[in-house]
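Chapter summary example: a protein plus S-adenosylmethionine.
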Amino acid sequence: MDERFRDAMYRSHDQVFSGDPNGVLVTEVADLRPGQALDVGCGEGADALWLARRGWHVTAVDISRTALDRAAAAAVEVEGRVAWARADLTVTPPPVGAFDLVSVHYFPLARRPDHAALRGLLDAVAPGGTLLFVTHALVDLVRPGSPPPA
Ligand SMILES: C[S@@+](CC[C@H](N)C(=O)[O-])C[C@H]1O[C@@H](n2cnc3c(N)ncnc32)[C@H](O)[C@@H]1O
């Protein structure tokens, strides 16, 4: 269901995102020593491409095949430094302790009692590595006229 929903979202436009890397990524990662990075919900790949250009080896994961095909087509120059992978990260956790940087930007992570998907992302960070988790403030998601979040 989520895969079909995401694919339909990407197919509905030639390009969904700007093609620019997320600003927080640029600010927070610019001074880190490149290593292995995981881009969680990479979308059309702008963050993965930016990381690869800076010398990172990137595993870029998304549930949408359409997004991944688009990302790979835009990233031929960094071929070999980005592995594009289709997976549902709420079902299939990434490998444990494998990444010096786990970069999560605007990834829809539903709250679950066992927090399994979140734990999977935390566990993917190598010892001494970095988890960069960026999301919307709840207040920004409230539609005008609707009640504030509880
Ligand atoms: C709001 S977009 C953000 C894309 C990109 N990180 C960015 O900041 O431009 C969220 C991305 O997560 C992907 N996604 C959603 N649920 C997913 C899941 N369960 N597993 C893997 N990717 C997922 C979507 O297909 C989409 O590309």
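Key point: The chain has one domain: 2-12+24-141.
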